[in-house]
Amino acid sequence: MVTKAITSAAIGINSCVIEVETDVTNSLPGMSIVGLPDNAVSEAKERVRSAIKNSGYTFPTGKVIVNLAPADIRKEGTNFDLPIAVCILKEEGIDIPDDTKTAFLGELSLDGSLRKINGIISLVSGLKESGINTVFVPYDNAKEAALVQGIKVFGAKHLGEIVAHYTDSPIKETAFDIDKYFEEHSEEVFIYDFKDVKGQNKAKKALEIAAAGGHNLLMTGSPGSGKTLMAKCLPSILPPLELKEAIELTKIYSISGLLNPEEPLMIKRPYRAVHHTASPYGIIGGGTNPKPGEITLAHRGVLFLDEMAEFPRQVLEVLRQPLEDGEIVISRAKISIKYPAKFMLIGAMNPCPCGFLGDREKECSCSDFQIQKYRSRLSGPLLDRIDMIINVPRLTTEELINTKTEAEPSSVIRKRVINARKIQSERYKTEGIFTNSELSAQQIKKYCALDKTSADFMKQAAQKYLLSGRKYNRVLKIARTIADLENSNNIELKHLTTALQYKVDMI
């Protein structure tokens, strides 16, 4: 007799329904798993065998054949252990009813206990979309699985609990109040605050604009001018996550195995600081079984590249397409996976190898050739995709030792940023985007319309600075964000002049 159970397989941050079929034949004892399994799935036969025996149940004496259908989809991970075990228990006469609306997910220990698996929220989401209404998961995954509304979640600690659920001891359903969780964890504590940054008002304003509109920013200046410190302060002014963004981020971090067990839902925007020795695959993701890279882990947050010119040019060039499209497609011989990558790129670099080109106090010792070679690591097409480029000069002695004037705290700046984001959220509620940086060319025409005076100014600016189509559109996006920060419905001339200043302030 063939027994069946429903489970799910991860494909990127999405998933598809898998049907597990088991049959026992009168042959030499053994177990075979077919249906394009990877090594982790193939090794399930040893875990399942020991888990069933050590849980007090009998394992079939014949040949056990397990099929994972559809057979043309690569099966990865350890979440197939539990459904395989359930099918075998059915073969042995255990009273677990056949139910096409119930699914099983989980890894088995040799003693029959259930272990936490990665990507549970993606797996359960895919099951719900396919009409599944009940799912059994490891107890440690239950809260995360319960984030998916509209499906019953039962968290079990042991294989025996699932058998008992259908006989005399039902498992309590796991519930998760997302709104309450958001409210309880709304208070965020930040280590770095802009009140501790002396001077650099222009750079702080640029970071405020970047945070309000989700724009990319490159800071260049002498060593010790405060570039890295200000980048570390940026998370303190970013707005809280929307629920849709939080769910999307949770899927990414869950599939990557980076989700904090104590925090089943991501509530903070990510801040990823990457060292310049990172490889292209570490940045964009990849591997035989493609996993998310830093640009995906920074989705809806910040990717900070300190000493940006020290990164190999090959590494920087892989950022060009994701910066434009907001996603990355990783293609391999047998699979192609798409990951979201809508991140804010924040870069910091010195103006030259010695770091003192244009410095107020110290003279640069680099030759023109050295400066050109150093800057050439950032190609023109990459710079074209960076919304704002600003110079961060060395602090004057008066600014450095001034203790009387306290800088504006992050809490005050954050209020302005949140207000600007609310304006954008309301404006784009039917467009499927969150920020001005995501505007398409067609949407720019609709939401960044200029009056005659402003249009004439931009025409002259485009001729003077030789603005490309991409640069021109990015100036309009920045101006739209500046207008939102000032609660202005229309883009005015002063907004355009400020935006243009940030875009043409080249290194």
Overview of the structural elements:
This protein has helices spanning 39-42, 44-54, 81-91, 120-129, 142-145, 159-165, 178-184, 201-213, 227-233, 243-255, 280-284, 294-297, 313-317, 320-325, 368-375, 380-384, 397-401, 410-427, 441-447, 452-465, 469-485, 493-504; strands spanning 3-11, 14-25, 30-34, 63-69, 102-104, 107-108, 114-115, 134-138, 152-156, 217-220, 271-274, 285-286, 291-292, 302-306, 327-331, 336-340, 344-349, 388-391. The chain has 507 residues and is α/β, with parallel strands linked by helices. The protein has 2 domains: 3-176, Ribosomal Protein S5, domain 2 (2-Layer Sandwich), CATH 3.30.230; 194-504, P-loop containing nucleotide triphosphate hydrolases (Rossmann fold). The strands form 6 sheets. Strands 11-14-17-10-18 form a 5-stranded parallel sheet. Strands 1-2-4-3 form a 4-stranded mixed sheet. A 3-stranded parallel sheet has the order 5-8-9, sandwiched between helices. Helix 8 packs across helix 21 and helix 20 runs parallel beside helix 22. It is elongated, with a radius of gyration of 27 Å. It starts with a strand and ends with a helix.
